[in-house]
Amino acid sequence: MSAVRVLITGATGVVGRLAIPQLLARGHWVTAVGRTPEKRAALTVLGADAVALDIFDADSARRAMAGHDAVINLATHMPSSTFRMLLPWAWRENDRVRREGSAALAQGALAAGVSRFIQESFAPVYEDGGAQWIEEEWPQRPAPYNRTVIDAERSAARFTSAGGVGVVLRFAGFYGPDPFLRDMVGVVRRGWGPLVGRAGAYWSSVSHEDAASAVVAALELPPGIYNVCDDEPLTRREWVDALADAAGAPRPRLVPGWAAAVGGASLELLSRSQRMTNAKLKSASTWTPRWRTAREVLRAAVGMLDSDPGPRTIRADEGASP
């Protein structure tokens, strides 16, 4: 495709920081939003034009987006640890980002004449599908703490209804060298699996790198909703065992099934079997995940936890399992 001018929010997150170099490598002009002078300086080092922007102010968004062809909204406000993710009140700011921020950004993009609006979303709100393959039309059932996933997706739908191209990327669970993987490794080394649910229930996931390349591919997608996940989702038993092998730890016990039943809506959502397919995304674009399954790359990701200060591309020889 020809080069376009792109504005990206959530640019300092793990996916944004990997997407910016990929966008630049394809000749696109990138404006990246950073909330603090330090974050804007880091984005400049990556090669982007860094700007400040109040994502809750549609008029501020309109001014910043003037002259751009596409807006990529990756803005989130995730709880700071795996433990805090289980606390419903820890998601309040993220709710505001998804409900109010996404709406303001879509409104500002329309007012600025932007033709494409790409919205991140969270795929694991799908209803339990057992061993069936889950396509984008599968019923959704968010937990109370993440109902605003639906609000964010509606912002992209309104953008399309107003004449633009609205694209929703429903990301599966991320994995890569980040604090959450470090927490999971710590749980495994204490003898427990970090995923709740039945041993045979599927956990769909996607590497940071493949999520970032899907963001780039979204610049060419028709309007609509797309699952972003590995080719081969693993069961919880398979995923946890692959993580244990990567960490050099004995294969752990899984959290008992009753734990999800007594753990409230958050754990119930995380216990569902979701065998997602990425067929729609692959058929509509040139995107294909570099890593077919988490088995291929967890060893490298775990090995990078203590040696790498930020996200980077994993080499093919690093990802290969022995």
SSE layout:
Elements: E1 5-9, H1 14-25, E2 29-33, H2 37-46, E3 49-51, H3 58-65, E4 70-73, H4 92-111, E5 116-122, E6 133-134, H5 148-161, E7 165-171, E8 173-175, H6 179-189, E9 202-203, E10 205-207, H7 208-217, E11 224-228, E12 234-235, H8 236-247, H9 257-262, H10 264-270, E13 275-276, H11 279-284, H12 298-303, H13 316-319
Parallel strand pairs: 1-2, 1-4, 2-3, 4-5, 5-7, 6-13, 7-11, 8-10
Antiparallel strand pairs: 9-12
Helix pairs in contact: 1-7, 3-4, 4-5, 6-8
List keywords for this structure.
322 residues, alpha/beta, two-stranded parallel ribbon, 13 helices, 13 strands, 16% strand, globular
Structural notes for this entry:
With 322 residues, the chain is of the alpha/beta class. The chain is 39% helix and 16% strand. It has 13 helices and 13 strands. It has helices at residues 14-25, 37-46, 58-65, 92-111, 148-161, 179-189, 208-217, 236-247, 257-262, 264-270, 279-284, 298-303, 316-319, and strands spanning 5-9, 29-33, 49-51, 70-73, 116-122, 133-134, 165-171, 173-175, 202-203, 205-207, 224-228, 234-235, 275-276. It has a seven-stranded parallel beta sheet, with helices on both faces. The protein has a two-stranded parallel sheet with strand order 6-13. Strands 8-10 form a two-stranded parallel ribbon. Helix 1 links the parallel strand 1 (5-9) and strand 2. Helix 1 packs across helix 7 (208-217), helix 4 (92-111) packs parallel to helix 5 (148-161) and helix 6 packs across helix 8 (236-247). The radius of gyration is 19 Å and the shape is globular. The N and C termini lie far apart (38 Å). The model has no long low-confidence stretch (mean pLDDT 90).
